[in-house]
Design a protein that fits this description.
The protein is mainly beta. The chain contains 5 helices and 21 strands. Bound molecules: 2-acetamido-2-deoxy-beta-D-glucopyranose (6 copies).
Length: 497
């Protein structure tokens, strides 16, 4: 039925009706652009320092938020000759009308824009938050039940200078200190924001739409050859198929820990790891167990043994008593679960290191297997579990999550391919979905995440597991040499079941 409708609409209607109807296909999508098929792309960029803030803007780059959003305008050839602020690009009958200018993308502290609050004008962290809202207002698309704004490309620098005083500890402000931990940092300025180059999307004569964001963290360095590098190119044939997002991420000696993800975030409220009002793509917030994620992933280069490639990372926030987060950084807890598909990633959870395992595993028939049950517990299914730093009633022994790398305490449940995940359509063997095994996945993310252990205070009502960020990409975690990861992502959809 869905397929037939598409064909009829293709013959009878304009572009927008085709894309909307084909994508619907009888299924309800939680996102604004089901399957990444909408020609009028909405995509944004955000860069985070170690604790998901800005700290200081990179010279001449403005605040590290940018967007590329446009609609296609069908006009007879040669009709549009008057000068226009957003210069249209022509093919036969279509032109792109950009909604975000170069000047919008360059906005940085000290420069006002509509809606900017006085307290944010000279504060790089608050400025970035409000710039995201402003870019969202330029990109917003009306829809039901909610308008939506953009896909988000997120880049994060894992360097941490404990002498900078920039990052709170489990949400609590701390003074600069000399760290005994081995956080990577080459010295003063190691937490910098990157250079950002932007190629606005253009429409080529052959019907290819293409644009990109790219850049480096080494803005002082002349040794470009071995510099850190990131790039996301988006490309689509007009009126057909999915956008294909091609990603590259390279670490360097000075920037050995980098992350690059494509995220579907909440359109308002908090998104994973971010205690501020956000903009995004999730016009309906998916809740466990009632959603699936479909996507095509093709990894060309893995990024070395430390590349924790996430065949989906899901993020949310709730308190240890199960209540939703409210922005109180001392009691809010970011919760993440992520499947790491790099076959070189070992299980840190094992019968002899149960501190790295969640207290129990829950089977599809809801049987709990305790981690001390060495015969039945699937140790190989868990890379690492760590508990929130502010939890009061943890089962010994436990490992606490890094207290500095989020604005508030965090909890991580990191999974590995294993037969216990077969029920949910996730990889069951090391190597599945890895380099040379590009696939389209239909993951029962809702079902799986309903049966993961997350910490809660005894006797409290279980949290509703509502997810505010779903993302795919890699975290190259402290490499001893430059490593390159390269992958494409397309057909991303979040299906409500
Ligand atoms: C860190 O150590 C250096 C040298 O040992 C010392 O000079 C400096 O005051 C210390 N800084 C802090 C914030 O403790
Ligand atoms: C770049 O150079 C300037 C001036 O020498 C220095 O203050 C800054 O810390 C450097 N930044 C980085 C990221 O190396
Ligand atoms: C379309 O043209 C552009 C620009 O010349 C080129 O880079 C691209 O590869 C072409 N795409 C296809 C599908 O031929
Ligand atoms: C880049 O790194 C390679 C080895 O990793 C080294 O041989 C080369 O000299 C470096 N180039 C520069 C310009 O630093
Ligand atoms: C639940 O599944 C496990 C294996 O996953 C099996 O051993 C057990 O018998 C099942 N329990 C019930 C009640 O079906
Ligand atoms: C396993 O842990 C549970 C919960 O802490 C405990 O009740 C049980 O006695 C333990 N079993 C073994 C064999 O240690």
């Amino acid at each position: 039925m869905g397929k037939l409708m598409c064909v009829l609409l293709l013959l009878l209607s304009n572009l927008f009706v085709i894309t909307a109807s084909c994508a619907a296909n009888g299924e309800a999508s939680a996102i604004g652009d089901p399957g990444m098929r909408r020609d009028g792309l909405r995509v944004a960029f955000e860069a985070w320092n170690f604790c998901n803030g800005v700290g200081q803007e990179a010279p001449a780059m403005g605040s590290p938020r940018a967007a590329d959003c446009f609609h296609l305008s069908s006009k007879p050839k040669h009709s549009n000759t008057r000068k226009h602020k957003h210069k249209p690009h022509h093919t036969d009958t279509n032109s792109l009308v950009h909604k975000v200018t170069k000047a919008d993308n360059k906005l940085g502290v000290g420069k006002p824009f509509p809606g900017l609050s006085p307290k944010a004008l000279n504060n790089p962290d608050l400025y970035a938050v409000e710039k995201e809202l402003y870019l969202g207002s330029l990109c917003q698309v009306s829809d039901t039940p909610e308008p939506w704004q953009f896909w988000m490309l997120m880049l994060k620098n894992g360097n941490y200078d404990s002498k900078s005083g920039l990052c709170p500890r489990n949400g609590k402000k701390v003074l600069p200190f000399n760290s005994s931990n081995n956080f990577p940092c080459f010295g003063n300025g190691c937490m910098n924001q990157p250079i950002l180059y932007h190629q606005h999307t253009t429409l080529h004569k052959n019907g290819t739409l293409r644009g990109s964001f790219s850049g480096t963290y080494e803005f002082n360095s002349s040794t470009a050859q071995n510099s850190s590098y990131y790039e996301v190119v988006w490309e689509k044939q007009i009126a057909t198929g999915s956008w294909v997002f091609s990603h590259k991420l390279r670490t360097s000696k000075n920037y050995p820990w980098l992350m690059l993800y494509l995220r579907a975030d909440a359109t308002k409220g908090y998104s994973g790891g971010y205690p501020y009002d956000t903009r995004g793509m999730l016009k309906t917030l998916p809740e466990s167990p009632n959603f699936k994620v479909r996507l095509s992933l093709d990894i060309k280069q893995g990024g070395g043994p430390k590349s924790q490639f996430y065949l989906i990372d899901i993020g949310s926030c709730w308190k240890n008593n199960g209540a939703p987060c409210d922005g109180d950084l001392l009691t809010d807890v970011t919760r993440y679960s992520e499947m790491i598909i790099n076959p070189e990633t070992p299980a840190w959870c094992s019968p002899t290191s149960i501190r790295n395992c969640p207290p129990f595993h829950i089977t599809p028939n809801n049987t709990k297997i305790h981690r001390n049950d060495t015969i039945n517990f699937p140790y190989g299914a868990y890379h690492y579990y760590c508990a929130p730093g502010n939890a009061q009633h943890l089962q010994e022994p436990y490992s606490s999550c890094d207290p500095y790398s989020n604005p508030q305490a965090q909890e991580l449940v990191q999974l590995l391919p294993h037969p216990v995940w077969a029920e949910y359509g996730y990889p069951t063997k090391q190597g599945e979905g890895w380099v040379g095994d590009g696939r389209t996945w239909e993951l029962d993310v809702g079902g799986l995440s309903s049966r993961l252990y997350f910490y809660q205070d005894p006797g409290t009502t279980p949290a509703r597991r509502i997810w505010t960020s779903l993302d795919v990409g890699t975290e190259i975690f402290v490499t001893d040499k430059a490593e390159l990861a390269e992958w494409t992502l397309s057909n991303f959809d979040v299906i409500l079941t």
